[in-house]
Write a structure and sequence with these properties.
single chain; about 210 residues; alpha/beta; Rossmann fold; 7 strands; about 35% helix
Length: about 210
């Protein structure tokens, strides 16, 4: 049986958030493209900050950050897989606050109402002015979301933005993530893009949203 939304959840308010996001980004094609999630993370890091990677799987992201020269960034991970080496295995263990939290390709694995509550919990782990970076499969991509049978909640870009606003955060910016060979990238970005728009599909595999705690 599906769980009910929390008593303070309002669908009309949620739809208003979604409408506001769509006013900023009238279509998926108005969302700026970045090559990798890592590029977004590096833009958000200012140095000397405490970072939490939720659902990290490995600590590879932390190693990549160190290689950029930002050795003063303190990188920590949380993953529910107790067989792997992480700083935390549940949010309940965490007592410190973070400047940046990364949630990469996780939110779609959670039921919608639980996802909203999860985002609220992450917000409480941020310092004022802290940023939450969330990525999820791009629904406008023909098959990206359906490649994983464990996906539970599909998020359009405006629904993801509304979910972050609903959690009490302020949406800062959104991106589409797309990286390919120079030839294919050029063709898709500058030559065949009209065809993708006509078919209402997208070649970018993921969307990323950055939200700020006030």
């Amino acid at each position: 049986m599906a769980k009910r939304e929390s008593k303070d959840f309002s669908w009309s308010t949620f739809y208003a958030h979604r409408k506001a996001v769509r006013k900023i980004y009238p279509s998926i094609y108005k969302v700026q493209i970045k090559k990798k999630l890592f590029d977004v993370v590096m833009e958000e890091l200012k140095g000397g900050e405490l970072v939490l990677d939720v659902g990290a799987s490995t600590k590879a992201l932390g190693d990549r950050i160190k290689k950029t020269g930002k050795a003063d960034v303190i990188y920590k991970t949380m993953d529910i897989d107790s067989a792997t080496d992480h700083d935390y295995h549940s949010l309940e263990e965490i007592e410190e606050k973070f400047d940046v939290i990364i949630l990469s390709e996780v939110i779609e694995h959670i039921e919608f109402n639980e996802g909203i509550e999860f985002l609220k919990s992450l917000k409480e782990l941020l310092v004022p002015g802290g940023r939450l970076i969330v990525s999820t499969p791009n629904l406008n991509h023909p098959n990206r979301y359906f490649q994983d049978p464990d996906h539970k909640t599909p998020y359009t870009y405006e629904t993801l933005g509304a979910a972050l606003e609903e959690s009490g955060l302020s949406l800062s910016v959104m991106y589409r993530i797309y990286n390919d060979s120079i030839i294919r990238r050029t063709l898709r970005l500058y030559i065949t893009t009209w065809l993708y728009r006509y078919l209402d599909i997208d070649f970018a595999k993921s969307i990323v949203a950055v939200a700020v705690k006030g």
